[in-house]
Amino acid sequence: MSHEEKNTLLQIIIGVVVNFYIIQKVRELYSTGAMDGPDAIQIWAHEMFWVIIFAVVGGIVMAIIGTILFSIIETAVTGEADQNFITDERDKMIANTGNKTTVAFTGMGFVVLIAGINFGYRPIDCLVVLMFCFSLGSLFGEFTKLARYRMSI
Amino acid sequence: MAKKPKITNTIRRLRFDADEMTQKALADKVGVTRQTIVAIENAKYYPTLELAFLIARVFGKEINDVFTIEMDE
Q1: A30 Cβ contact partners less than 8 Å away, ≥ 6 residues apart
Q2: Shortest distance, CA A10 to any CA of chain B (angstroms)
């Protein structure tokens, strides 16, 4: 398993955690009635701002911890850890494929946002859908990358 | 509709002839991961022209001696 493939696996784990957290947070906001008040968009934006910060910082920390853990497991199993951190042309090609999936989801989210507002749904609900499309798109992009890695060996 | 041409290669045999050069050694020489060499050998990934030339150069061959295109009629 190459360095980039391991990274993809880690990003999937982080993506699952972040998506789970967003679902919990949004459910909490709806159940407490925070999404019905006049400050709904501001409250939602405040929560999502911290989710983004958490996802970025958490992602970096998890990538470092994950790389160390993978090295330890590899050393235990094979006797030596792969110290090769190269990102080559195949990695870039696979990353492009993953990005296409992510862009498709985010594009879809934007269309849903416009259509939703057009058909009279509340902007805050449409923004929630857009946010889900972003975070799910990122996760499915990583899944696409992993599938391409597994299929091309 | 025309079928996609298949590109085959002789890297496995060339590695064997080059003192059983490992996939890892070849990967290091051309600056890619071992997994990319595995994918190229199995024709699951077609390298860029640049990488194809680099691989051919490692074995001291012309690119045509390493990669062959097969056109289905």
Answers
A1: none
A2: 18
Which two tokens mark A7?
A: 């990274």
Taking an 8 Å cut-off on Cβ atoms, the answer to whether A153 and B51 are in contact is no
Inter-chain residue contact A3 with B33, CB threshold 8 Å? yes
Using the beta-carbon criterion (under 8 Å), do A84 and B33 form an inter-chain contact? Answer: yes
Residue pair B9/B40 in contact (Cβ under 8 Å)? The answer is: yes
Q: Find tokens 């909490």 and name the residue.
A: A28
Q: What would the DSSP string read from start to end of A3-52?
A: HHHHHHHHHHHHHHHHHHHHHHHHHHHHHTTTTTSTTHHHHHHHHHHHHH
pLDDT tens readout for residues A50-89: 888 988 888 888 888 888 888 888 888 877 766 677 888 9
Which residues have C-beta within 8 Å of that of residue A67, sequence separation ≥ 6?
Answer: A3, A6, A7, A10
DSSP SS3 for A134: helix
Burial category of B50 from C-beta neighbours within 10 Å (exposed 0-12, middle 13-18, buried 19 and up): exposed
Query: Given the structure tokens 């194809």, which residue do they identify?
Result: B52
ipTM of the complex: 0.85
**pTM for the full predicted model:** 0.84
- Measured between beta carbons, which residues in chain A are less than 8 angstroms from residue B51? 89
Query: DSSP class of residue B69?
Result: E
